[in-house]
């Protein structure tokens, strides 16, 4: 007997109470072990269009719907008795004649169902798909029975309709609706209909109890079992060198990276994999996801190290090599720069210019001598330097280096370069390296990554999104020995946020952006989840904003959300998070905690944090407070820019920050401001 599970089964399970979920899972395990046991009361459902739906008894109230075809048994759905029956009555399983994918098709008997939705709303709108040939739509994977009703779909009922279609058809229709040209997918000759990539995103054969256990234990984590064909291809491929997976927020880049790590660990029984990130908060949360995917105590998990790169560099330098490291922070560095400037500078350059030249050229690229600096190309820097000024600027940097060394301090970039030199004896520590948030790795960090792994097959796997770049200036990866041309994948389906939130967040960004591999890519993604439009609200005073946030969070809690499902984010700590968000939280009398790096366990509390600290995380509901002019973008960051090019880059990073913050929301997004709104919204 072959045993399979459908993603709809997990969706059904999600909706049940905790107690009922436990009963269903236990029954599913027992059924997998011995489906003939009479206690399952396994029998065919009568009077349905789909004759291959059977039912399993869980208790007086709950049923499991099973699809039985030859030697295949597939768990399809679970719910209370009548609802489970209704679900089965409205569906059937078909192999699509054009694409070859097995689909769970929602039965639609009458086009009136679709037309009525529009009439009810009393709007007259042009139909979206009317101009496309039905044969073309069929080839895109639309089930035959839906071709006629599709003719009546307008903007008002588009999302409702797509939600009822198989995912691959819905995604392609969404693209068409957005004005894209959608090519007919290649038909894959598959002997086993379950091997078709589109089938595997909803139906998976589970080989053993462990796989079933993993799929059922974390019903929210559907990604442990069902991947999009593009995700699957990116993670299965063998790469002859560094590979790159890009995609907007929520497109499952981290999920692909985790699966990739697991795949490499399974394939190389002795292999050691490093999974590294920029932010320590994300690294801590990734530990949890890796435990879900691989199991906490498995042999594979023991060979996987998850850490942010700076922590690893510190460990190599201090713990392994016994050397000293004390980081200089930005303020400390700025003081030293001012000191050096006042004693030496004859260049006439501003402190802002010197800081940015140091950060984006000298420190990033590990320039240690005048000879190196003299000929350095300074790509993309707005202010040109003649030879005399360059030398004067270098004198200041030389002095800063001396001052740093006399205080026993160094920058994180210097630490990375020191590690690279120390590792230069050929001892590479890892067999494969996976990098999440690669957009925030600068030249020093990427060179360290390069030095930590030998060059060869599947050496470095990077995932990232240039639209979420918060710390780095753009530069070419080729210049640090990372070439990804021909080994890049772009993910297009957003799994985190609703289409409404996605549209708002994508609207903040330019339609195309240059990726690190050098390619200009469209940022267009689609989401098949639906929800309320984001709420963007301004207030005359901070007190009004606070009152609104209190009421909003109370409503969410009353609706059944847990505190841990909610986050409040802000651009600045004191003026927004401490003075306004904390005020709101103290009135709510609900536990809250600051997002920080050291946590591996997420407390049962509302999260509070800066936009920077929210990177890579997600919550059901997010309030982004304090999005007023002057704060988003933050005036002093822009005014620190020493020329137009730098100002544009700073502006782009500020916009990316708001994009990061708003895309943390899965279901509800509220953006508030006091006075004038941010120019971004
Ligand atoms: N194939 C999938 N099926 C179901 N859910 C998925 C799938 N892939 C990803 N997800 C879910 O989508 C959400 C976003 O995934 P993930 O964090 O990997 O995205 P990301 O691209 O790394 O996002 P960001 O760049 O914003 O951090 C997560 O809740 C994840 O569980």
Plain-language structure description:
Residues 226-505 form the UvrD-like helicase ATP-binding domain. It is an enzyme of class 5 (isomerase). This protein is an alpha/beta fold. It folds into five domains: 2-95 and 191-216, YaeB-like fold; 102-177, no CATH class; 227-318 and 431-495, P-loop containing nucleotide triphosphate hydrolases (Rossmann fold); 330-409; 534-674, Rossmann fold. Helices cover 41% and strands 17% of the residues. The protein has 26 helices and 24 strands. The protein has a six-stranded mixed sheet. A six-stranded parallel sheet has the order 11-10-12-13-9-14. β4 (62-69) and β5 (72-80) form a beta hairpin. α2 runs antiparallel to α10 and α11 (229-236) packs parallel to α12 (253-267). The longest helix has 21 residues, at 387-407. The radius of gyration is 28 Å and the shape is globular. The structure holds adenosine-5'-triphosphate (ATP). Adenosine-5'-triphosphate binds next to α12.
Offer a quick outline of the entry:
The protein is an alpha/beta fold and 681 residues long.
Which characteristics define this entry?
681 residues, YaeB-like fold, Rossmann fold, six-stranded mixed β-sheet, 26 helices, 17% strand, binds adenosine-5'-triphosphate, ATP hydrolysis activity
